[in-house]
Design brief:
alpha/beta; 11 helices; globular; 324 residues; 37% helix; TIM Barrel
């Protein structure tokens, strides 16, 4: 059997992704997830539901399901708060909404700086600078990552964030960041699944002791409702994945999550159904063979679903490529 690559950070291997959980369900889903055994919660200002996530966490702690120290809570700095003076207030807003004193991990959400939008004007500010404009667009800001990272390091020094890291960075941006960082990024969160294996990026992070969290680990599923993926791209229906799932007596989703965990990444996956929550969490009690790992990796098409270079122009009238 193939060995599991060790994750350099003590982050639970499977986390609950809170992107796209409806507001009226979020608190209950978070509570149910914690009650089911989840200890890793992946949040963000931009998801617009951190208040409700905080309510679910507070209930679980109050009822003795867990302690704060049992949980790993991640949040993310939105694009409009990259300037040094806005980083700490943005983090504090997430902490207040989540009803927490500290984050286990705080990430720069995208390497895209947008013009500041005050909290009292709109929160979360999302992508448009002025959604009421006759032709709304993003409004880019000239803020170097170095400035944002220094402010992130201050949060780490103040113990507002136990670890700091980045999302949606490639190797070039990581190399640049590592050249000046006083506190190196602890983790990179990126889209990663068998249609987008990102093997060079994963290898580089492992060489640099940067942990990796894979978002959208099931592939296309999160993007059907956004018209950003076709049903034919579903990995849950893929014959190779389904054959391996049958061999292990597991679901296709469990096999896909196991593939990610066995590569040495943590994975964050969303579900609002209790059965699926439990199923998605149960991926550490079996292993894929080397041949099975190779077969799944061989499905790679370099197919990226979450690409600002595509959706930025289509949805927000602004061309903002970051991967090319």
């Amino acid at each position: 059997m193939t060995n599991t690559v060790k994750n350099p950070l003590p982050i639970p291997s499977v986390g609950l992704g809170t992107w796209k959980i409806p507001l009226d369900q979020t608190a209950e889903v978070v509570y149910a997830a914690i009650e089911s055994g989840y200890r890793h919660l992946d949040c963000a200002c931009d998801y617009g539901n951190e208040v409700q996530v905080g309510q679910g966490i507070a209930r679980a702690i109050a009822e003795g399901v867990c302690t704060r120290e049992d949980l790993w809570v991640t949040s993310k700095l939105w694009n409009t708060y990259h300037a040094a003076e806005h980083v700490a207030p943005a983090c504090q807003r997430s902490l207040d909404d989540l009803q927490l004193d500290y984050l286990d991990l705080y990430l720069i959400h995208f390497p895209i700086a947008l013009e500041y939008v005050p909290f009292d004007l709109r929160y979360p500010p999302e992508w448009f600078h002025d959604p009421d404009d006759a032709a709304p667009k993003m409004k880019l800001a000239s803020v170097p990552i170095r400035e944002t990272w220094a402010a992130m390091e201050s949060l780490h020094g103040q113990k507002k964030a136990n670890h700091i890291g980045v999302c949606n960075f490639g190797t070039s941006l990581l190399r640049d960041l590592l050249s000046y960082a006083q506190v190196p990024p602890a983790l990179l969160q990126v889209e990663m699944h068998p249609l987008l294996t990102q093997e060079k990026l994963l290898r580089f992070c492992q060489q640099q002791s940067i942990a990796v969290t894979a978002f959208s680990p099931l592939g296309a599923e999160s993007y059907f409702s956004l018209s950003m993926a076709g049903e034919e791209e579903s990995l849950l229906q893929n014959s190779i994945v389904c054959e391996i799932a049958q061999a292990h007596g597991r679901s296709a989703a469990q096999v896909l999550l196991r593939w990610g965990v066995q590569r040495g990444t943590s994975v964050v996956v969303k579900s609002s159904q209790h059965k699926r929550l439990v199923e998605n969490l149960t991926v550490t009690d079996f292993k894929l063979t080397q041949d099975q790992m190779t077969a799944i990796t061989g499905l790679n098409q370099n197919r990226r679903f979450n690409d600002p270079g595509d959706f930025g122009e289509a949805a927000f009238n602004t061309f903002v490529p970051i991967y090319e």
